[in-house]
Specification:
alpha+beta; Aminopeptidase; 10 helices
């Protein structure tokens, strides 16, 4: 009987120790934000944050001094309306401090983007649209993977005072899980920023295209985008098995 009680006591003590360890782990991972799907009432706030935290610092837009236009806001709203996007909301203030604008892309999108580019008068908007179309064609994912649609993490941005806390990585991770839940067979990340590329590599996504900015030139044979270091190229990464990988600790 004493031996039995001793074993129960040891087992009970061990369980308590494990619970304490788990609680400590949870406390270390405690975050002051929550990842949720945005509602239509959030769209204006997302656009406002995007103007401040994305266009001013993203390598392609910032290097040409691009100012957000109605056309680009409409394109973002189109992506948001698809229902695949995620936002990071501060638990204390309720403010949106980060977002991943996600959308489904199709094989005809590059052609549509080039057509749209030819219709706009703003030169910088035209340059960006042509480059986005070029990136999609360079990767050629629809042919390589025999898929009709791709889950695309199109825009990723975090408010400046909320950076350095793993928020962008969480948005990518949760977006990948979202892609799996929505039945997509391929997830794509356009890493025009060196920092987005680091997130993709850390999450072990596959690099399928690397376009040096110095290689993308205009009619004058000069590079269109000349971003500052450490941004050297636009890289495209994919998650080839969203359903399988969503079960892993990515």
């Amino acid at each position: 009987m004493l031996s039995l009680l001793r074993n129960i006591s040891i087992k009970h003590s061990s369980n308590i120790h494990n619970v304490i360890k788990r609680n400590k782990a949870i406390q270390k991972k405690d975050e002051n934000f929550m990842i949720v799907r945005p509602l239509p009432d959030d769209y204006d706030e997302i656009l406002c944050l995007m103007h401040k935290a994305y266009y001013t610092e993203e390598p392609t837009t910032s290097s040409i001094g691009f100012k957000p236009t109605v056309l680009f806001d409409e394109r973002t709203l189109h992506g948001l309306n698809q229902g695949f996007s995620l936002i990071a909301r501060c638990k204390h203030t309720g403010e949106i401090i980060g977002a991943a604008v996600n959308e489904a892309s199709h094989c005809w999108d590059p052609d549509e983007m080039d057509k749209l580019a030819c219709q706009v008068q703003d030169v910088k908007s035209r340059q960006l649209l042509h480059f986005y179309a070029h990136m999609s064609r360079e990767a050629d994912l629809w042919r390589k993977y025999c898929v009709h649609k791709i889950f695309e993490i199109t825009y990723l941005f975090v408010r400046k005072d909320a950076r350095g806390k793993g928020l962008a990585a969480r948005l990518v991770k949760e977006s990948r899980i979202n892609a799996a839940d929505c039945g997509f067979h391929l997830t794509k990340v356009d890493a025009t920023s060196h920092y987005t590329a680091l997130i993709a590599e850390k999450q072990k996504l596959k690099l399928v295209a690397d376009i040096p900015y110095c290689s993308y030139v205009g009619a004058d044979q000069e590079p269109i985008f000349k971003p500052s270091d450490p941004h050297k190229s636009a890289k495209i990464y994919v998650d080839e098995e969203p359903q399988k990988n969503s079960l892993k600790k990515v």
